[in-house]
C-alpha cells in the first residue's frame, strides 16, 4: 500500500545534511544518518547540543524502523473558515482562532462561534488573533495571542463555558510585545512545553534592531508561567535589569510561526519564515542566538543571512529551505505506530509552497531526511497550522483567505 515518494527536497546550505533515500522510518538509532550541523552548543550559553530540558537524547517515540510510508486519508473536518490560525483540542473538540478575531469550536462537523470579548483585536496584514493553546491541565482554559488596538501583541487567557459556547476573558499574561501597525512579522505561536511552561514564538515586526536586542520581546522565543505570566525562573537571564529580558529564552529569530514539542524528549523546535531564502527549523536551546540580524542599509536589511555565523555562538538551523523559500509556518510531531514511516517525523506546513513536509530527525535532534506528503501537495492551497489531536490524528488548517478548511488526516 505504500505510495511512491515525491522528490526529496534539496537541503539548504544551512542544514549541512545529506539526504537519505530510504523511508522516513529509516533506522534512527544513535549514530544513524549523516553528520549534521544542528544547533550544537558551540559558543552558546546553553550547555547541551540536545536543546531544551533534555540533556540526554532519547530515541524518538513511535519510531518503527523499516515501516512503510502509509497512504493518508484527508478529511475536510470543517469549511467556510477565514484564515484559521491557532488550533487546539479541549478534550476531543477542536478549538481554533480566526485571524480576524474569532474563536470557534467544531461541533457536529460545523464551526460554531464562541462568544468572547475580542473587541480590541487589531487585524491587519499578518497580524490579528493568532496563536491558541489549550491548557494541558485544564481543557476549558485556553490562551490566545493577538495584535491589540493598544499597539502591542498580547497573551491573554480565556475560560470556556462547559458547553463551549462562551469564553470569559482573564487578565493578560503578558502585554507589550512589539507590533508593526501593518501587522508584518507579528509571530505569534504558543505552545506548552513538557516543563509545563508556556512558550511564545514572536516576530521581529520588521525592525532591524529587535532580534539581537535581548531586552526586546520581538524576534524571540519567550518562556513564561502559563498561569501567572511570570517569567520562567530558569530562563537564561532571570535577574536582568530590564524585566522584558527575563522572559527571553532564545533570540535572533525572524518570525516564529511554528513551535513544536517533541514527545518524549521535551525538545522544542521553532519554525521561521526566511527572507528571500532559508526558511528555518531550529532546535531551541536556552539563551542561544539564532543569528538573524537584519541591520545594515535602512531600518530593516533583509539581504543579510538568516543565520549570521559571524555572530558569536550563532546556532545554525536544523533544516533550512535554501532558495526559494516555502514560507513554513506551523509544525507538530507525528506520533503513533499507525503512521508507519511518518511516525516520529516533524510535520511542517508551508504557505507559499502549499505542501506538508515531514522531517525525520535523529535522536540527537539533527536532520536525517525530508519527505513531502503527496496527499497534501498543492491540493488544498496554503497550509498554516499543524496539530495532533488526542487520538493521534493530524489536523492542518488552510490559509487561502476565504472558505478555508480544517483538514483531519489519518493513515488510511
Ligand atoms: Ca537563523
From TrEMBL:
<dbReference type="InterPro" id="IPR011042">
    <property type="entry name" value="6-blade_b-propeller_TolB-like"/>
</dbReference>
<feature type="region of interest" description="Disordered">
    <location>
        <begin position="23"/>
        <end position="68"/>
    </location>
</feature>
<dbReference type="Pfam" id="PF07995">
    <property type="entry name" value="GSDH"/>
</dbReference>
<feature type="compositionally biased region" description="Low complexity">
    <location>
        <begin position="23"/>
        <end position="55"/>
    </location>
</feature>
<dbReference type="InterPro" id="IPR011041">
    <property type="entry name" value="Quinoprot_gluc/sorb_DH_b-prop"/>
</dbReference>
<dbReference type="InterPro" id="IPR006311">
    <property type="entry name" value="TAT_signal"/>
</dbReference>
<dbReference type="InterPro" id="IPR012938">
    <property type="entry name" value="Glc/Sorbosone_DH"/>
</dbReference>
<protein>
    <submittedName>
        <fullName>PQQ-dependent sugar dehydrogenase</fullName>
    </submittedName>
</protein>
<feature type="domain" description="Glucose/Sorbosone dehydrogenase">
    <location>
        <begin position="81"/>
        <end position="402"/>
    </location>
</feature>
Amino acid at each position: 500500500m505504500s505510495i511512491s515518494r515525491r522528490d526529496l527536497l534539496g537541503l539548504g546550505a544551512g542544514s549541512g545534511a545529506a539526504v537519505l533515500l530510504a523511508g522516513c522510518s529509516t533506522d534512527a538509532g544513535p549514530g544513524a544518518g549523516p553528520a549534521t550541523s544542528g544547533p550544537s552548543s558551540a559558543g552558546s550559553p546553553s550547555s547541551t547540543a540536545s536543546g531544551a530540558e533534555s540533556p540526554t537524547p532519547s530515541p524518538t517515540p513511535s519510531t518503527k524502523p523499516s515501516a512503510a510510508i502509509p497512504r493518508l486519508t484527508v478529511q475536510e473536518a470543517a469549511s467556510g473558515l477565514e484564515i484559521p490560525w491557532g488550533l487546539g483540542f479541549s478534550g476531543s473538540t477542536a478549538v481554533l482562532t480566526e485571524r480576524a478575531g474569532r474563536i470557534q469550536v467544531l461541533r457536529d462537523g460545523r464551526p460554531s462561534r464562541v462568544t468572547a470579548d475580542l473587541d480590541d483585536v487589531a487585524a491587519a496584514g499578518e497580524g490579528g488573533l493568532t496563536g491558541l493553546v489549550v491548557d494541558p491541565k485544564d481543557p476549558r482554559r485556553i490562551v490566545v495571542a493577538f495584535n491589540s488596538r493598544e499597539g502591542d501583541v498580547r497573551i491573554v487567557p480565556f475560560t470556556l463555558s462547559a458547553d463551549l459556547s462562551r469564553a470569559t476573558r482573564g487578565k493578560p499574561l503578558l502585554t507589550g510585545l512589539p507590533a508593526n501597525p501593518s501587522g508584518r512579522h507579528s509571530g505569534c505561536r504558543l505552545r506548552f512545553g513538557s516543563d509545563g511552561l508556556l512558550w511564545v514564538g514572536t516576530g521581529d515586526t520588521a525592525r532591524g534592531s529587535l532580534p539581537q536586542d535581548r531586552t526586546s520581546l520581538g524576534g524571540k522565543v519567550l518562556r513564561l508561567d502559563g498561569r501567572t505570566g511570570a517569567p520562567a525562573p530558569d530562563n537564561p537571564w532571570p535577574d536582568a535589569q530590564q524585566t522584558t529580558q527575563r522572559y527571553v529564552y532564545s533570540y535572533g529569530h525572524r518570525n516564529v510561526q511554528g513551535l513544536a514539542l517533541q514527545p518524549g524528549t521535551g525538545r522544542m523546535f521553532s519554525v521561521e519564515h526566511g527572507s528571500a531564502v532559508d526558511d528555518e527549523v531550529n532546535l531551541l536551546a536556552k539563551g542561544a542566538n539564532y543569528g538573524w540580524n537584519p541591520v545594515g542599509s535602512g531600518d530593516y536589511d533583509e539581504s543579510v543571512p538568516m543565520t549570521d555565523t559571524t555572530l558569536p555562538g550563532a546556532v545554525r538551523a536544523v533544516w533550512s529551505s535554501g532558495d526559494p523559500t516555502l514560507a513554513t509556518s506551523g509544525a507538530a510531531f507525528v506520533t503513533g505506530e499507525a503512521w508507519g514511516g511518518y511516525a516520529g517525523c516533524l510535520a511542517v506546513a508551508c504557505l507559499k509552497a502549499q505542501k506538508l513536509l515531514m522531517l525525520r530527525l535523529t535522536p540527537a535532534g539533527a536532520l536525517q531526511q525530508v519527505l513531502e506528503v503527496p496527499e497534501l501537495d498543492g491540493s488544498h492551497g496554503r497550509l498554516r497550522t499543524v496539530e495532533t489531536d488526542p487520538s493521534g490524528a493530524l489536523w492542518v488548517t488552510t490559509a487561502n483567505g476565504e472558505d478555508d478548511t480544517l483538514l483531519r488526516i489519518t493513515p488510511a
